[in-house]
Amino acid sequence: MLVLENLNAHYGKSHVLHGVSVEVRAGEVVGLLGRNGVGKTTTLKAIMGLVRRTGGRITFEGRDLTGVPTHGLAALGIAWVPEERRIFRLLTVLENLRTGLDRPGLDERKRQELLEKVYRHFPVLRERRNQAGGTLSGGEQQMLAIARAMMLEPKIILLDEPTEGLMPRMVSQIREIVHALHRDGVAILLVEQNVPLTLEAAERLYIMEKGVVRHHASAAALRADQRVIHEYLGV
Amino acid sequence: MDQIVIQTINGLVNGMVLAVVASGLTLIFGIMDIVNFAHGDLMMLGAFVGATVLGITGNFWLALFVAAIVIAMLGVLLQVTTLRPLIGRDPLTTILATFGISLVLQKYALWQWGPTVRKISEPVSGQFALFHLQYPWYRVATAILAGLIIGGLWLFLKYGKYGIWIRATTQDRVMAQAMGIPVPLVHTAVFAIGSAMAAASGVLFGPFAGVTQTMGSDFTLRAFIVVVVGGMGNLGGSILAAIFVSLIEAYAALVVSPAQAVIVSFVVLVLTMLFRPTGLFVPTPK
After folding, report:
1. Nearest chain A Cα distance for residue B31, angstroms
2. pLDDT digit string (tens) for chain A, length 235 residues
3. How many separate domains does chain B show?
4. Residue B223 belongs to a domain
5. How many angstroms from the chain centroid is the CA of residue B212?
6. Is some CB atom of chain A closer than 8 A to the CB atom of B168?
7. Domain-located, residue B203
8. Which residues in chain A have their CB less than 8 angstroms from residue B174's CB?
């Protein structure tokens, strides 16, 4: 469904992605592992059109994303949950969610349905719906960031280090939501440092090093033989 | 005592008009990081359009409405042709660009309408006794109307679908795009709203002092003081600062001549920059 072929990208003058090829099929959870600074986040930003693509191709459902503006991706079914969460800090929780609900072709009933769905997953968001996003705790902001992406009814979510800096209780909630999204048939491209979580949640994994994909295997294979992970991640 | 009451009312009336000008300016700065030096000139042009429509139709309210619409459309044109290509560039480029627009608009007004002062007659006549002088009702009506415009803007930003888009874009342009909000369109719309508000305040202010092609520069300067004192990009702060600065100027005019009273707002500006560079009316950042 989402295909990155030989993707090259630059930040200013520095060449950060040197030909990344990754594929995510419909409904599939795919992990992207690697140490800090190897280009995982940049890969997601390149998909979102936020870094300068200097070579290669990104296609989504067969459609070339070159020239599609960032704000046009949501309508195609691509949602992004950035590493920094990027909650609209002065907007209330409900207003944060509404940024994804006020789109054409969505009637009031459907909106309520979507809201109810995320409130079921994250009851704390219902409690705090009239509170400014910036006043939430780190874990709550992460939930809001995922919930906000779910408002777009995406076909794929680009999920960037959702468990970074979270307490174990919050991590298990994130794990549950990843499973729930998977059950609903939403594809996920999961960037993580948390290897056990990624091995458990993903079906296939790509391991990146210095701006390229070094290894590609099924999660089952990697679970059976973790030497590759030790080699590239040093864990 | 009488003098103080009169100057308080004067300060409030001037403050409300200035608040309409400044809230457009701060809205544009907040969302696009564009320091719009042509803002006062959009106000001036609005006043001329208003005066022209008033001359033809004799209807002040129609003139107000038409001026706002015409200048909003001009705003769209300016934003799309000049400012949109410059978004994300060095702030100096947009400053120079808007400064250039300002000069062009002023010279256009001079060419189109000439150097003489145009008068916009008051739609609300009548005066009421305020101590020893007759105070025109129109000034009071202006303050109320300005309050309605600001109140309307606030309601729109707070509850409207597009209001949420504007606030989200102001806070995080990139994330707003990722949520599917058409950010370039939002930028243009905000510039149009700011321009319309400038034009409306130009027409409202017209009856006070007449319309000249240089009236804008004065307001640009004052609006900038207000925007900085209130906290860059902070709408509520700008409105409070507009009233605050206007009141201080009004009180200062009791002691010194009104022309010298303007100095007081510069003193406020300098003190704000020195001691509260983030603005007087925003909580101290932690």
Report:
1. 13
2. 999 999 999 988 889 999 999 999 999 999 999 888 899 999 999 999 999 899 999 999 999 998 899 999 999 999 999 999 999 999 999 999 999 998 888 899 999 999 999 999 999 999 999 999 999 999 999 999 999 999 999 999 999 999 988 988 889 999 999 999 999 999 999 999 888 899 999 999 999 999 999 999 998 898 888 888 888 877 6
3. 1
4. no
5. 16
6. yes
7. yes
8. 50, 70, 86
Query: Given CB atoms, is B37 within the 8 Å cutoff of chain A?
Result: no
CB pair distance less than 8 Å for B180 and A80: no
Cβ contact (<8 Å) for B182 and A98?
no
Which segments of A105-217 does DSSP mark as H helices, in order? 108-121, 123-127, 138-150, 168-183, 195-201
Work out how many CB contacts closer than 8 A connect A with B: 63
> Do B151 and B242 meet the contact criterion of CB atoms below 8 Å apart?
no
Query: Rounded to whole angstroms, how far apart are CA atoms B119 and B203?
Result: 10
Residue B182 in domain:
yes
Q: Which residues of chain B have a CB within 8 Å of the CB of A156? A: none
| Domain membership of residue B102 as a residue range | 16-213
The reported pTM is: 0.90
Q: How far is CA B203 from CA A96, A202, B72, in A?
A: 37, 63, 14
A48 touches chain B (CB under 8 A): yes
Query: What residue of B is the nearest CA neighbor of A75?
Result: B180
CA distance A75 to chain B (A): 7
Q: Tokens representing B16?
A: 């409300």
Q: Tell me the C-alpha distance between B175 and A35, whole Å.
A: 25
Tell whether B167 lies on the interface with A, counting CB pairs under 8 A: yes
Q: CB distance from A152 to chain B under 8 Å? A: yes
The verdict on a CB contact (< 8 Å) between B174 and A74 is no
ipTM field: 0.93
Q: Could you write out the three-class secondary structure of A13-61? A: CEEEEEEEEEEECCCCEEEEECCCCCCHHHHHHHHCCCCEEEEEEEEEC
- pLDDT tens across B157-185, in order? 999 989 999 999 999 999 999 999 999 99
Q: Which residues of A touch B179 (CB under 8 A)?
A: 74, 99-100, 148, 152
Write out pLDDT tens, residues B79-130: 999 999 988 788 889 999 999 999 999 999 999 998 889 888 888 888 888 8
Band of residue B283 on the pLDDT scale cut at 50, 70, 90? low
Q: Which fold has domain A2-233?
A: Rossmann fold (3.40.50)
Residue found under tokens 């701060």: B26
